[in-house]
């Protein structure tokens, strides 16, 4: 039984809500549309008002069952801005009018940025939506994988939307500066991507995402990805600017320094008191959204928000398996020096049709290389080797 079912406390509950299950661009690596799973295309194009009401009621019941510190709703897609603005506003009104027993409500949105205009900015301002933009680097790199449905560049449109968000934040209209999500690319230079975000785009909060590849995929380049991460890490360390936040870097370094409970959801789902679920536009609850790319039964629907309770979600076979996989290491990882820091890596990267999730990450080498480089940087900064070794062995 999951720990939180005993004490009934949740520090952070994050729901990826699929408000639009279609997209206006066609990223070739997209786990939603281009990894062989049809769940998105089989779902309604937009979430209905009825399913929004069911979702709010689900959250209200959850907050009565559990003491939830922060309740974060990630407005996701596809591309969430394909939703009509009037419907988006009505949805936010329903979110904010719910009764969540004192939980702190946070709205976040992930977008490719190409559809942002002044009306969207006004909606983000009115409903205090934290917005992050997906982009993979300068035009010649971004457009290798992130083209629109007609094969045209998305770079200029994405940067235009990002600039509008930055200006709105500088005017005090948005609750946070826009961040960036970037899929790490084994074929490019990580330092170039890092410098583009910081120097050219002026973004000081971003994250590098390990690709959603597993043993079904043919183009896994663990050596190249490790190099990418190390190149970007070297630039971040060289900048030595506490204002620049790169989640992948800072959370793993915190773990190397022995700071408890500093893991990343998706890399390690057993971060104490922190849980994430997916709710599709059809109103059904599932576990980690990236697992759809495996087409494994773990991603099967758990239940509809109109009928299922949060405790029933946590007690479902899918969530129990998800938690069990996250809290145990693949057989191949036993005895690895990094097992307490890496925790087996992202679950999706472990999948193979033959062994399901009992394989070391397809990007195992990448993370071992990255953690070695991060440890070397810490030693160069004057951190005692004994402190790092204590964290590694705890």
From TrEMBL:
Keywords: 4Fe-4S, Iron, Iron-sulfur, Metal-binding, S-adenosyl-L-methionine
SUPFAM superfamilies, per the entry: Radical SAM enzymes (SSF102114)
Cofactors that this protein relies on: [4Fe-4S] cluster
Domain Radical SAM core: 9-260
CDD domains xrefs: Radical_SAM
One Pfam family it belongs to: Radical_SAM
Official protein name in the record: Radical SAM core domain-containing protein
Species, as recorded: Yersinia mollaretii (strain ATCC 43969 / DSM 18520 / CIP 103324 / CNY 7263 / WAIP 204)
């Amino acid at each position: 039984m999951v720990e939180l079912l005993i004490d009934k406390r949740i520090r952070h509950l994050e729901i990826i809500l699929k408000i639009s299950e279609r997209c206006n661009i066609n990223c070739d690596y997209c786990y939603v549309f281009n990894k062989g799973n049809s769940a998105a295309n089989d779902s309604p194009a937009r979430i209905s008002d009825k399913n929004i009401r069911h979702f709010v009621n689900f959250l209200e019941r959850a907050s009565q069952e559990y003491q939830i510190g922060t309740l974060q709703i990630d407005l996701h897609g596809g591309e969430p801005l394909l939703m009509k603005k009037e419907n988006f506003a009505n949805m936010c009104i329903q979110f904010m009018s719910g009764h969540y027993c004192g939980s702190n409500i946070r709205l976040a949105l992930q977008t490719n940025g190409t559809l942002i205009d002044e009306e969207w900015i006004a909606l983000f301002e009115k409903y205090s939506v934290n917005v992050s933009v997906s982009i993979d680097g300068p035009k010649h790199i971004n457009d290798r994988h992130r083209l629109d449905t007609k094969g045209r560049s998305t770079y200029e449109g994405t940067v235009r939307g990002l600039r509008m968000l930055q200006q709105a934040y500088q005017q005090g209209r948005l609750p946070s500066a826009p961040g960036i999500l970037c899929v790490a690319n084994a074929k490019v230079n990580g330092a170039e991507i890092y410098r583009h975000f910081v120097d050219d785009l002026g973004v000081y909060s971003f994250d590098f995402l390990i690709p959603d590849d597993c043993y079904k995929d043919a183009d896994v380049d663990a050596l190249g990805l490790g190099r990418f991460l190390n190149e970007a890490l070297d630039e971040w360390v060289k900048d030595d600017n506490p204002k620049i936040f790169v989640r992948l870097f800072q959370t793993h370094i915190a773990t190397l320094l022995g700071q408890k409970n500093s893991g990343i959801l998706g890399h390690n789902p057993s971060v104490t008191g922190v849980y994430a679920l997916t709710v599709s536009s059809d109103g059904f609850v599932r576990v980690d959204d990236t697992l759809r790319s495996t087409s494994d039964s773990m991603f099967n629907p758990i239940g509809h928000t109109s009928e299922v309770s949060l405790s029933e979600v946590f007690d479902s076979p899918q969530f129990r398996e998800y938690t069990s996989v996250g809290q145990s290491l693949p057989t191949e990882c036993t005895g690895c020096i990094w097992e307490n820091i890496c925790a087996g890596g992202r679950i999706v990267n472990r999948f193979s049709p033959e062994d399901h999730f009992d394989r070391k990450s397809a990007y195992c080498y990448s993370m071992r290389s990255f953690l070695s480089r991060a440890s070397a940087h810490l030693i160069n900064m004057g951190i005692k080797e004994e402190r790092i070794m204590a964290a590694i062995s705890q």
